[in-house]
Each structure stands twice: as C-alpha cells, then as structure tokens.
Amino acid sequence: MNLIVAVDENWAIGNKGNLLVRIPADHKMFRQETTGKVVVLGRKTMDTFPNGQPLKNRTNIVLTHNPTYTVKDAIVVHSIEELLEELKKYDTNDIYIIGGTSVYEQMLPYCDVAHVTKIDHAYEADAYFPNLDEEPEWEITADSDEQYYFDLTYQFVKYERKK
C-alpha cells in the first residue's frame, strides 16, 4: 500500500483544515499517481474537496466514525478493520492513503511506499505527518532534483519500508 503526502520542513501537513500551500506540480504528480486507483481518506479531508465530493476517476474510500455519514460515489467505512476488509478487493499497489493526520497514523503500519513532497519551508500548522527520516524502518529510495515554485523550493521523495 502507498501513501502520498506533502509536508513542510517540520513534517506539517495542514493548518485549520487546509493544505499548507498549493503547488501545481505537486497536484499534477498527485493526479498522475492516483488517477484510476483507490484513495483512502478521512471525512474531514473529504470535506475539504470541492463541494465535499469524491475525487474523479478514482475509487474513494472514506473512513469515519460517524455511522450516518454518506457521500455520493464513495465507499464509507467506520473502522480500520472494516477498511482493511474493503481494501482486500483491490491490488495493494493501487491503494493510496491521502490523509488526514489520523488516517495516515492509523494506516502507516500497513504501507510500504510513501510518496512525500518535501517543501523547504516552515508553515504555521496544526496537523502533522510522522517524520519518516526518524523512522529506522523507512529509507529514501528515490528523489527528484530540487523543484521551484516562485520562491519555494521542494522535492519529490520516495520512501520505502525496509524489507
């Protein structure tokens, strides 16, 4: 299973329910990586999408504790156990965990690949991703050259769980 995330230099991912920054090349990479695949996200992340609607051309699976939550064109599950059972229907290489914090934390043990956009800036933030550089079972297996978006520097980094 994969996860995909954009983090700042402190491994922050969001503030007050929003992304820290919108970088067009990061969004393009996200689309290329996840289109035609399965994305797993929490309800709060779904709420940030345009009109609270699922991402097009993907199977959207929403994890929420709310038993009455429904969203058109998405699969809704209410526990990690139920989520893992649902995910058995798909090729694990086609599954991407896309946030937010609690979904990342709960699903990290099940993932073997992390696609991380590392932004060389510190933002005001209230949501974080675990720092994979401090996790001995993760290693960098690929990275891009430095990318630039106006005055921001960032890099696409692929982490893999050591076998």
Describe this structure in words.
This protein has 163 residues and is of the alpha/beta class. It has one domain (2-161): Dihydrofolate Reductase, subunit A (3-Layer(aba) Sandwich). Helices cover 19% and strands 36% of the residues. The protein is built from four helices and twelve strands. The protein has helices at residues 24-34, 43-47, 80-87, 101-107; strands spanning 2-7, 12-15, 18-19, 38-42, 59-63, 75-77, 95-99, 113-119, 127-128, 138-143, 147-149, 152-161. The strands form two sheets. Strands 1, 4, 5, 6, 7, 8, 10, 11 and 12 form a nine-stranded mixed β-sheet that branches. A hairpin with a 2-residue loop joins strand 2 and strand 3. The longest helix has 11 residues, at 24-34. It is globular and about 45 Å long. The two termini are 14 Å apart.
Question: Can you lay out the helices and strands and say which pair or pack?
Answer:
Layout: E1 2-7, E2 12-15, E3 18-19, H1 24-34, E4 38-42, H2 43-47, E5 59-63, E6 75-77, H3 80-87, E7 95-99, H4 101-107, E8 113-119, E9 127-128, E10 138-143, E11 147-149, E12 152-161
Parallel strand pairs: 1-7, 1-8, 4-5, 4-7, 5-6
Antiparallel strand pairs: 2-3, 2-9, 8-12, 10-12, 11-12
Write out key terms for the chains shown.
single chain, 163 residues, alpha/beta, Dihydrofolate Reductase, subunit A, 9-stranded mixed β-sheet, 3-stranded antiparallel β-sheet, 4 helices, 12 strands, 36% strand
